[in-house]
Amino acid sequence: MTGRAAPPLLTTAYLEAAALHYLERFASSRANLRRVLLTKARRSLAHHGGEREEAEALIEAVIARLAGLGYLDDAAYAEMKTASLIRRGGSRRAIQAKLAAKGVAAETVRAALEEFDPEAERAAAWALARRRRLGPFRPPAARAAHRDRDLAALARAGFPGEIARAVIDAETTEADPADDPTRDMA
């Protein structure tokens, strides 16, 4: 005995309730919600039996219904996720990879990244450096010893070399867009 309760029988009502419960807690793309519901369906099918094709048809119907009601919108999800990842210090490449992993179509990702200009990428690199205490956010005595490591961290995060060098080699944090008192006045 594993101590885990038997999964519910697979019905449209159960899948819709599970989808709504998931969407209450997390923003999601259609493909990601499909993966979540397929996991639940596999557990139910393993315990109660049934055909995978029928489960997939039920899942597609639930996804279509929720999309029709406006609960699922891949374009809005991509824009929201892009803005969030930029604030956290995500590079263009990292954002593309994360959205692709969530099943967002390439055209939708491109549309969400249209406003991701070089200035936004530079601001994201500064945000990551601030969050991880890289470059000018390190104690001055440790900066030179960690320069290569800091550059590598920004490179692994997907930032172009010129942006990574500009951030890591900055003398002070005054170039950090977050320090600009006029940035929110637009």
TrEMBL record:
Domain RecX second three-helical, first and last residues per copy: 73-113
Swiss-Prot/TrEMBL keywords: Cytoplasm
Keyword Cytoplasm in record: yes
Chief localization: cytoplasm
Protein location: Cytoplasm
Signal peptide residues on this chain, from the entry's feature table: none
Keyword Cytoplasm belongs to the record: yes
Functional summary from the UniProt entry: Modulates RecA activity.
Protein family according to the UniProt entry: Belongs to the RecX family.
Protein name per UniProt: Regulatory protein RecX
